[in-house]
Automatic annotation (TrEMBL), chain A:
Protein localization: Nucleus
Domain DNA-directed RNA polymerase RpoA/D/Rpb3-type: 2-233
Xref: PANTHER family: DNA-DIRECTED RNA POLYMERASE, DNA-DIRECTED RNA POLYMERASE II SUBUNIT RPB3
GO CC terms: RNA polymerase II, core complex
GO molecular function: DNA binding; DNA-directed RNA polymerase activity; protein dimerization activity
Ranges annotated as spanning the membrane: none
Name of this chain's protein: DNA-directed RNA polymerase II subunit RPB3
InterPro entries, sorted: DNA-dir_RNA_pol_30-40kDasu_CS, DNA-dir_RNA_pol_insert, DNA-dir_RNA_pol_RpoA/D/Rpb3, RBP11-like, RNAP_Rpo3/Rpb3/RPAC1, RNApol_insert_sf, Rpo3/RPB3_RNA_Pol_subunit
Record GO biological process: transcription by RNA polymerase II
UniProt record similarity statement: Belongs to the archaeal Rpo3/eukaryotic RPB3 RNA polymerase subunit family.
Keywords assigned by UniProt, alphabetized: DNA-directed RNA polymerase, Nucleus, Transcription
Organism lineage: Eukaryota, Fungi, Fungi incertae sedis, Mucoromycota, Mucoromycotina
Gene3D superfamilies: DNA-directed RNA polymerase, insert domain, RNA polymerase, RBP11-like subunit
TrEMBL record, chain B:
Lineage, opening ranks: Eukaryota, Fungi, Fungi incertae sedis, Mucoromycota, Mucoromycotina
Protein name in the entry: DNA-directed RNA polymerases I and III subunit RPAC2
Source domain of life: Eukaryota
GO biological process: transcription by RNA polymerase III; transcription elongation by RNA polymerase I
The organism of origin for this protein: Mortierella isabellina
Residues covered by region (Disordered): 1-21
SUPFAM superfamilies linked: RBP11-like subunits of RNA polymerase
GO molecular function: DNA binding; DNA-directed RNA polymerase activity; protein dimerization activity
Cellular component, GO, one term: RNA polymerase III complex
Length: 250, 165
């Protein structure tokens, strides 16, 4: 049985602690567009990058290199110059990745990509991006999900919610779709004060860097890793305390 | 034009990760700023200390005398670990009380207080809490993967949320 507290932890990890790849540093060589360097750098940071293989990339802080290297980063370059008389759109499709496993996300072949900037004749944009592994705890651009909806007890059988109403609760508070997956309450049955929530409905939409099912399994794995790490640290702390206070009770 | 380096996330306006989580994000950034400052004006050895937290867990002093009643201070942890751990520890029948708190939003610290009966002690109860939570997560992973393998699922149509009424 899953508990509400753990289900909420899962939701929180999905949002803020599942690692993905996102552009973190931008080196601008030429920028004669109408947008400022920082503005473009910010837009680049937000572009989702296919992160199914994030496990293969290290966090820069764990890497042996001095600044960044292929083991802890992906390099993406972009060079576009408008030579024609009409507006030239620069999209995420123009980013050339150094590692084919980590490309800007496209939904299908016809996807035009994410618009970065528009160029007029003579405008030029040339830059180098360093994409790194990170988590949304540090910056939201690393979040794999755009939303996680989380619900339990759609009929409010447990009475965890008190609905504010004007006249009629049933009319003013339509049931969620998840209600179809549960038996409706028996209006004559007495209130079961021992009942605990045991079914949790998650509904998630990702930004494209990972598939929703990948986000769930990676979130659970992240949670497990965190637990193992903290428990190990606890053992260490208890051991050192024991040495300090030799006469400790156990 | 000379090349200019820009770290994208310094210029960013922080977007809400989710309501209620902003404080955590802020706290994280605060931490980053602190370590950055140390990086700039001190030797390499100290940089090492600034990045790696010396103690992930600290047994808060003053609680050493009584092994059945202790407070643990977790660095860089939040409600994600706190609430679920508290819940698992409270499930243990030999635990009288367990509670957690984050004393200040801009300090990345989380305190867990445990009070047990005479049959056990706080450290053992905390360890059992970790074990139970690990087992639960393991169970969720295996059953999720099993269900996923059966292929009995479909993606919700684009732009429509499955739970929306």
């Amino acid at each position: 049985m899953l508990y509400d507290s753990v289900a909420n932890s899962l939701r929180r990890v999905m949002i803020a602690e599942v690692p993905t790849i996102a552009i973190d540093m931008v080196e601008i060589e030429t920028n004669t567009t109408v947008l400022a360097d920082e503005f473009i750098a910010h837009r680049l940071g937000m572009i989702p990058i296919e992160s199914t293989d994030v496990e293969r990339i290290k966090y820069t802080r764990d890497c042996t290199c001095s600044q960044y290297c292929p083991e802890c980063s992906v390099e993406l370059t972009l060079h576009v110059k408008c030579t024609e008389d009409r507006t030239r759109d620069v999209t995420s499709r123009e980013l050339v990745s150094s590692n084919p496993q980590f490309q800007p996300v496209l939904t299908d072949k016809n996807d035009s990509g994410i618009l970065i900037v528009k160029l007029r004749k003579g405008h030029e944009l040339s830059l180098k991006c360093i994409a790194k592994k990170g988590v949304a705890k540090e910056h939201a651009k690393w979040s794999p999900v755009s939303g996680v909806a989380f619900e339990y007890d759609p009929y409010n059988k447990l009475r965890h919610t008190h609905y504010w109403i004007e006249e009629d609760e049933k009319k003013e508070w339509p049931l969620s779709k998840n209600a179809a997956l549960e038996a409706p309450p028996d209006p004559t049955a007495p209130f079961d004060y021992n009942a605990k929530p045991d079914r949790f409905y998650f509904s998630s939409e990702t930004v494209g860097s990972l598939q929703p099912e990948e986000v769930v399994s990676m979130a659970m794995k992240t949670l497990l890793d965190k637990l193992a790490y903290v428990q190990m640290q606890l053992k260490e702390e208890v051991d050192t305390k024991k040495q300090d206070h030799t006469g400790w009770g156990y | 034009m000379s090349p200019s380096k820009t770290r994208t996330h310094n210029e960013d306006i922080d977007e809400d990760v989710s309501s209620g989580d902003e404080e955590m994000v802020l706290a994280e950034n605060q931490e980053l700023m602190d370590t950055d400052e140390v990086n700039e004006d001190s030797a390499d050895v100290e940089v090492e200390e600034a990045i790696v937290p010396a103690d992930k867990i600290e047994i808060v002093s003053g609680s050493n005398s009584d092994p059945t009643c202790m407070t643990f201070c977790f660095k860089e942890e939040d409600h994600t670990l706190g609430n679920s751990l508290r819940h698992m520890i409270m499930k243990n029948p030999s635990v009288d009380y367990c509670g957690y708190s984050i004393p200040h939003p801009s300090e990345a610290k989380m305190n867990v207080h445990i009070q047990t009966t005479e049959q056990t002690n706080a450290v053992a109860a905390l360890n059992k809490g970790f074990d139970d939570l690990t087992d639960l997560c393991q169970h969720v992973i295996t059953s999720f993967k099993k269900e996923l393998k059966s292929g009995n699922f479909e993606y919700s149509p684009e732009g429509k949320w499955a739970s929306a009424a």
